[in-house]
């Protein structure tokens, strides 16, 4: 994993407040969902090319 992810996890474990945890969770979930959509589009477009 990238060093920045490790630092973020350390921050979440040690220093983040409840409000900060909620914001981080929303950001991460939204980013993961967007990435999944992007990857699904790529996979589907590859299937169409075959």
How do the helices and strands line up, and which of them pair or pack?
Blueprint: H1 3-14, H2 18-49
State the helix count.
Answer: 2
How much is the average pLDDT? Answer: 93
**Strand/helix succession:** HH
Beta-strand residue fraction: under 5%
Cα-based radius of gyration, to the nearest Å: 16 Å
What separation lies between the terminal Cα atoms?
Answer: 33 Å
Helix proportion of residues, in percent? Answer: over 70%
Q: Name the structural class.
A: mainly alpha
Shape: elongated
Low-confidence stretches: none
Sheet having the most strands: none
- The total strand number stands at 0
Q: Tags for this entry?
A:
0% strand; mainly alpha; 50 residues; 88% helix; 2 helices
């Amino acid at each position: 994993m990238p060093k920045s992810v490790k630092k973020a996890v350390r921050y979440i474990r040690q220093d983040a407040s409840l409000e900060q945890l909620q914001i981080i969770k929303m950001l991460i979930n939204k980013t993961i969902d967007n990435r999944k959509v992007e990857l699904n589009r790529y996979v589907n477009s590859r299937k169409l090319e075959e």
